[in-house]
Amino acid sequence: MLSASDAEAIILSLVQPLNTEQDTEFVDLLAASDRILASPVTSQLDFPHWDNSAMDGYAVRYEDVQDCSEEKPAVLEIVAEIPAGVQPQSTIQSGQAARILTGAVMPAGADTVVMQERTRREENRVIILAAPKPQEFVRHQGTYYKAGTQLLPAGIRLQAPEIAVLAATQCTQLKVFRRPRVALLSTGNELVTPDKPLQPGQIVDSNRYALFALVKQSAAQPLMLGIVKDEPEALKQAIADAITQADVVLSSGGVSVGDYDYVEQVLESLGGKIHVRAVATKPGKPLTVATFGNDTRPVLYFGLPGNPVAALVAFWRFVQSAIKKLSGLAEGWEPTFVKALARQELRSDGKRETYVWGQLRALDGVYEFQPAGGLQNSGNLINLAQINGLAVLPVGQTLICAGEQVQVLQVGS
Ligand code: AMP
Ligand code: MG
């Protein structure tokens, strides 16, 4: 059976990121958050847009105040008041100053701002009590960004800081990659949707809802395709339909060795190429990965385990990074592991890479991992609530004692 890291390498090698013109669209700034930039952005505006004051104070000519001190203050005549947003009208001559406020445009003639706290005002005169440094508190046009140069590179996710940068430089139309389409299917005769009255023996389909949320968090577009019966013909039709609509198909259930587990044979009957049949992980051993189409970007099919905990673990460990890589992110799509101190002992049978779910917290700059209370059993879906990490016990390791270090896969964002 494949190891988790071999499976991860195979899966990521199957993913060809979005990269053609057809994979892009234009969105405006309010629709751009969480999207991936498809081409570098260049603005036509310098930042700052003009020389302006970094302080409330007085705009002066440095030569007028360079030698002043509390004992020997400089006295300047105030010839203008310049609030932010106003174009100054006068030129500052020797012996003159302008009252200026933070962000306001520097008047011609002045080259330095003296902060208010180092001055005293007497009617239309200002007494400068300390010599500033040359050009102090002036933010010069274009210091932080020069118009026409690259502002942001392609392949990054636009989040609040990038949106601020784009807004400030008036880049309001952004070329981004389309969101990968991820089709979601649940397989199982026993399944019903959460809104239906439950008949004896039925099981509520939670996987499709959890996967919907996970796909959205990965900035992809989920397509809810429903529940499919454990019947080869029905499954074949549903999968054939899914692969025509999506970049990635996620089904759950039907990939184990049970009497009703038909997913793998259906994938093969549809011409799918199977790359992974099972992975040595716990939970999550049954995992089928297939591709359809041998063009440059095949449709990627993940047959996830039916078991709800196993389905989510398989998503976090193998699917999320594939979706992120597909989405056009230039880097940072790999799973993120951090080192943490286990707050309780963690156990495994040592036979497969084992994931213990729980909470990762940073305390005084050190990560700590607290396993979720209740049974760590792949049938226990309920104690998944509020977790944000999967502690990893590698093959061969049966125990990590409380206080020892453990690798934790960060999940949930
Ligand atoms: P399977 O791999 O299809 O045999 O499913 C394993 C277990 O997971 C069974 O108990 C199923 O009832 C359960 N299961 C399968 N699919 C889902 C689903 N979509 N939501 C919740 N539980 C499921
Ligand atoms: Mg099933």
What report would you give on this structure?
It is a single chain. Helices cover 18% and strands 32% of the residues. The protein has 413 residues and is an alpha/beta fold. The strands form 8 sheets. Strands 7-4-6-5-9-8 form a 6-stranded mixed β-sheet. β24 and β25 form a beta hairpin. It starts with a helix and ends with a strand. The mean pLDDT is 96. Magnesium ion binds next to loops. The site of adenosine monophosphate has 18 residues, from α4.
Which distinct ligands sit in these coordinates?
A: adenosine monophosphate, magnesium ion
Parts with pLDDT < 50 across at least 5 consecutive residues: none
Structural class: alpha/beta
Mean pLDDT metric: 96
Helix tally equals 7
Helix content: 10-25%
Share in β-strands: 25-35%
Radius of gyration: 31 Å
What is the number of beta strands? Answer: 28
- What is the 3D shape? elongated
The end-to-end span amounts to 29 Å
Tell me the strand order in the biggest sheet. 7-4-6-5-9-8
Largest sheet: 6 strands, mixed
Summarize the structure.
With 413 residues, the protein is α/β, with parallel strands linked by helices. It contains seven helices and 28 strands. Helix content is 18%, strand content 32%.
